[in-house]
Write a structure and sequence with these properties.
- The protein is α/β, with parallel strands linked by helices.
- The protein folds into two domains: 43 residues, no CATH class; 321 residues, Alpha-Beta Barrel (TIM Barrel), CATH 3.20.20.
- Helices cover 37% and strands 15% of the residues.
- Helix 7 crosses helix 8.
- The protein is globular and about 60 Å long.
- The protein binds flavin mononucleotide (FMN).
- The site of flavin mononucleotide (FMN) has 27 residues, from strand 4, strand 6, strand 11 and helix 10.
Length: 373
């Protein structure tokens, strides 16, 4: 049967499944490179509809046409942010970018846990450094809001100075900056989440922002592996600052939810469905601590319209995802957006902003394995 004789719906779903299954049959990092190549070549399904008005929301002063984003790590070097905007993401986060280029860890460093719908990665901030990404962002715009996620070089003698360089480099071109102190794959990086170091980091980064011509919103990206005391400390430290928001969360070092799955013993950060409950509970617990005004982007294990809705109910103002696209394909984006519109209408709300935080306390007290989502 020739492809053109099929209805557009069948043709699209056939092509989608063929590409998704083909990619899943490839070695994970090669599959990622192939995906980037396809996006760079413009092999993207153009969005068929404008975003529904129910999806419009604002985040730290940014007007989003929809609140669904691509998480950091997918487009490390700002090569496909234009294509992701065309597909219909409301925001996309490039990076993590470090001042100098670095290779990252030895391969293999990316592992699919098929049955668990999870990924373990220990990429180690492989990226081309600030300059090439800056040039690409300068030359190519996007319909999506662009976040630039900044980090520190592995061998750097002064991590905090690397973040300052990131602010100075990208302040005039990013719609927002994301300060990534939660990757588990750069030794010492997560130490910046605590006490005096976080204080020093924030005053340097926000001081550097204040010296720029444009006031770019700054978000802090946190790990899901924080105990209640660490969360208290972070909330207290940020409360006296003009930080614009939080991104919760990065990958986890925990393995309870994947015990027994092949690959579960690999070192690195775990993402995808096995991270969903932990990251959503961390989000809700931080929402309880920071109150209703501070914007939070919810990330970690979103894989369906229902799990996307749960992030909003747990206190997120916008969401991001990455791992589920590996298993489900990019068609998931439209499914999530349609599900959110349906939820807004079903509850007789006006926009997604009205969904935020309706179940914070429930999520904050949930047992990690208990959501069933
Ligand atoms: C292969 C891979 C690479 C990643 N690289 C980065 C990164 O460079 N910087 C970062 O902040 N997060 C990175 N992440 C974490 C994601 O941005 C996200 O926080 C996490 O995967 C949870 O979302 P998910 O379950 O939807 O994937 C990476 C995730 C994966 C799977």
């Amino acid at each position: 049967m020739i492809l053109s004789s099929l209805s557009p719906f069948l043709r699209n779903s056939l092509v989608r499944n063929l590409t998704r299954d083909g990619l899943l049959a490839m070695e994970p990092e090669r599959a990622h490179q192939a995906t980037l190549m396809a996006l760079k070549l413009g092999l993207v399904p153009p969005r068929r509809y404008r975003d529904a008005p129910e999806l419009k929301t604002s985040l730290a002063g940014l007007e989003l046409t929809n609140p669904v984003g691509m998480a950091a790590g997918f487009d490390k070097n700002a090569e496909v942010h234009t294509a992701l905007g065309t597909i219909g993401f409301g925001l996309t986060e490039v990076g993590t970018l470090t001042p100098s280029a670095q290779d990252g860890n030895r391969k293999p460093r990316l592992f699919r846990l098929m049955g668990a719908r999870g990924i373990i990665n220990r990429m180690g901030f492989n990226n081309e450094g600030h300059v090439p990404a800056y040039e690409r962002l300068r030359l190519h715009g996007s319909a999506a809001m662009i976040g630039v996620n900044i980090g520190a070089n592995r061998g750097s003698e002064d991590f905090i100075a690397d973040y300052e360089l990131g602010v100075e480099r990208f302040a005039d071109i990013a719609d927002y900056l994301s300060i990534n102190i939660s990757s588990p794959n750069t030794p010492g990086l997560r130490g910046l989440q605590s006490g005096e170091l976080l204080n020093r980091l924030l005053s340097s980064v926000l001081g550097a922002r204040a010296r720029q011509k444009i006031r770019v919103p700054v978000f802090l990206k946190l790990a899901p592996d924080l105990d209640q005391n660490q969360m208290d400390e972070i909330a207290a430290t940020i409360s006296g600052t003009d930080l614009d928001g939080l991104i919760i969360s990065n990958t986890t070092l925990a393995r309870e939810t994947v015990a027994g799955f092949p690959g579960a013993d690999e070192a690195g950060g775990l993402s995808g469905m096995p991270l969903f409950d932990l990251s959503t509970r961390t989000l809700a617990r931080m929402r309880q601590r920071v109150g209703t005004d501070l914007p939070i982007i919810g990330v970690g294990g979103v894989h369906s319209a229902q799990s996307a809705l749960a992030k909003f109910e747990a206190g997120a103002n916008a969401i991001q995802l990455y791992t589920a696209f590996v298993f489900e394909g990019m068609g998931l984006l439209e499914e999530i957006k349609a599900g959110l519109v349906e939820a807004v209408r079903g509850k007789k709300h006006k926009t997604v902003a009205d969904l935020v935080g309706s179940r914070v306390d429930e999520w904050a007290s949930t047992s990690i394995l208990g959501s069933g989502l």
